[in-house]
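Consider this:
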Amino acid sequence: MGTWDTGPFDNDTAADFANALDEAEPEAREALIRGVLVRTIDATGYLTEAEEAVAAAALIAAQCPEGDLVHTPYGPETPMPLFPSDLRALADEALARIVSDEDGPASNWVDPEDWKRWRAILTRLRAVLAPPPPSIALFDV
């Protein structure tokens, strides 16, 4: 089994995470997502939950204005709660940690084209998760 494609839920670990979200009580889902993001950010050494963090980031990004819905048979079947806005920054930080880890998930791709597609997915997620720039009021001259 393992990994069968480059999407956020296209591996056994992320699919298992989706199942855990489905089995959790609705009010516990945010804590599961927050926990995997924080542990990925704070991890030293090997990122043991990188696949789950990518899946969590995809679920958060799906609720953002430019986000893509998660349409995969391996993602959660139950609706996710509306996530608080602070999870966007945590998800972006976790993805930055994953992308910068040369010995982590980025090193697992045998086919360079798969690595490029996976990297593009993470880049797209980060672009969606990035908070909008602060608006600056223009003054009349």
Summary: The helical segments are 12-23, 29-42, 50-61, 86-100, 112-129. The chain has five helices and no strands. The mean pLDDT is 89.
